[in-house]
Amino acid sequence: MKSVEIPEELYAKIEKRIESTEFGSVSEYVTEAMKELMAKVEGGEELSKKEKEEISKRLASLGYMD
Questions:
Q1: Strand spans (E) along 1-66
Q2: Which structural domain, as residue segments, surrounds residue 61?
């Protein structure tokens, strides 16, 4: 398994967000988010406007977009 560094404040936000979810760790959450994104990107599917907005929001919450 490989590691990816993220800003501490982002980590704290994700930690707070997963408190009432099935995710046991920040790593599990980020891994699942990235799997979903990669499936969409690699699948060549045309994304709906709503899906694009959701992905943008998720990436922003992960600190990859402003």
A1: none
A2: 7-13+26-40+47-66
Q: pLDDT tens digits, residue range 1-33?
A: 888 899 999 999 999 999 989 999 999 999 998
How many angstroms separate the most distant Cα atoms in the chain?
34
pTM: 0.60
32-46 pLDDT, tens digit per residue, is 988 888 887 787 667
Q: Residue type for 44, please?
A: G
Task: Single out the residue of 61, 15, 58, 10 nearest to residue 33, CA to CA.
Answer: 58
What letter does residue 25 receive in the DSSP assignment?
A: S
18 is a domain residue: no
Structurally, the chain folds into a number of domains equal to 1
Residue with tokens 């980590």: 11
Domain presence at residue 36: yes
